[in-house]
Amino acid sequence: MHSHPLRQSKKQRKTMADNNPIRFGIMGCAEIARKVSRAIHLAPDSILYAIASRSIQKAKQFAVKNGLSETVKVYGSYDELLDDPCVDAVYMPLPTSLHVQWAVMAAEKKKHLMLEKPTALDVGQLDRILEACSVNGVQFMDASMWYHHPRTAKIKELLSDSKTFGQIRVIHSSSSFLGTPEFLEKRVKPDLNALGALGDAGWYCIGAIMWAKNYQLPTTVTALPAIARNTTGVILSCNASLHWDKEQTTATFYCSFLSNESMDLAISGSNGSLNLEDFIIPFTETSASFEFTSGAKFLDLHIGWNVKSKRVQVTSELPQEAMMVQDFVELVKGIKHSGCKPDGKWPEISRVTQLVMDAVNNSIDLGFKPVTM
Hints:
Gfo/Idh/MocA-like_OxRdtase_N; 17 strands; 35% helix; six-stranded parallel beta sheet; eleven-stranded mixed beta sheet; alpha/beta; Gfo/Idh/MocA-like oxidoreductase N-terminal domain-containing protein; NAD(P)-bd_dom_sf; globular
């Protein structure tokens, strides 16, 4: 892996204060595993102990490409990694269709589980994974990194201020990128990425909406007719709306592999609004911002506004993926060393997201009719 200033700061911050770091194994050498292997290195009290692929050659290539230490164990099968008693936790970036098999097996081997999104093909599969984690007393967390950025906590603080922000009325999120021909040909397949853009980019959109609504399920979910699929039927682009009857809140999202990069989140309340264009991956690692307005009104003759939006800047000592690892490690350490129970917050977040994603799929299958939650 390339040298990075954040790495040096970690070495300065920590001189192995914890002699019992959480030992990670990475199952699968997908591109995203490069980012997470770096995050494991940067996060306190964690080490990358082992990597595994379906072939020893691919695992070795990953180790070389990312400059991994020679002390990292390299396995040519997933079973070997799960059978290693020294592995405390696994990060699993396998294709979604393989999640239920290997995630359940990891839990049964008493490995704490950080699972790439989408967590499963449907909530039935996810429930099998979560049940295995619960029965075996291991921590579950999906690898949605943006939840762990301090900016996210700051936004939640503002949303929770009824005087400043008011009642949430409208939410819109988008996640899109223009997929390369290679990506669309090799990745967007029924056996690898069966949920397509909905499962990949849409997971973030739904997650952001549900996060803003404190994970209260909507009354209805309706997919919109503007949908694109590839020749194998996998979704390349779609839109949907969510509605909460009692609170009169409406949310919409757009996810796509066919349009320019977007990671927008806009939330409007009865007295405030906020916007950010990089909610999934901040523009820079060390700080992130959002625009916030409260009590805005038009001036006389509607020739302007009485206030300008305020840019709120939030700094971060670590990249958000390293903060995700850090949060996960703290939970694992509590279970391993202090007799704590797994935190049920993270499985519930994933399950609610999966439920809404399933509802969007159901609405599509029903000819874009509303699905009652």
